[in-house]
Model the fold of this input.
Amino acid sequence: MKIHDMTQVALMTAVIIILGLIPPIPLAFVPVPIVLQNLGIMIASIVLGPKRGTIAVGLFLLLALLGFPILSGGQAGPAVFVGPTAGYLIGWLLTPAFIASVNASAFMHHPGRQAVGTWIGAVLLVDILGSLWLIIGSGMPWLPAVMANLAFIPGDTLKVAVAVIVGQRVRIPRINRV
Done:
């Protein structure tokens, strides 16, 4: 990886961390709060693409695993990766590659179509994995787990719109990429 790529990855990792400083909004019916940090995951996915986006998200998650309190609400450490939110964290790691695979075709570069592809990767995939983890990891019945995730859909859809707009404005061109 070139210095240019490493700088972009580090910058996007910092953006994800900064969005985590905004306090989470807890919900009474599910142990997962509303956060803005996933907006950073979406932006990293769109701006950096699958490889560099996954590296940025992976670096962010590695720092959290090592104990740096960078997840929303100051969460960190190995316990977070086995707690109720672990499915969402796994989804975050898969998001850049998934968004890239959905948005790979040329016709997906239209902002509206890119928003659909981003929504599938950053909202649907993450919510499915989050629900599965809640069901398996915390023993929550499947219907309440799935229904609880529906509360996140409107806010996450708004975040997708913001991420696509930001991504269209700051998309880093692929110069001399192999």
About this structure: The chain is about 65% helix and 0% strand.
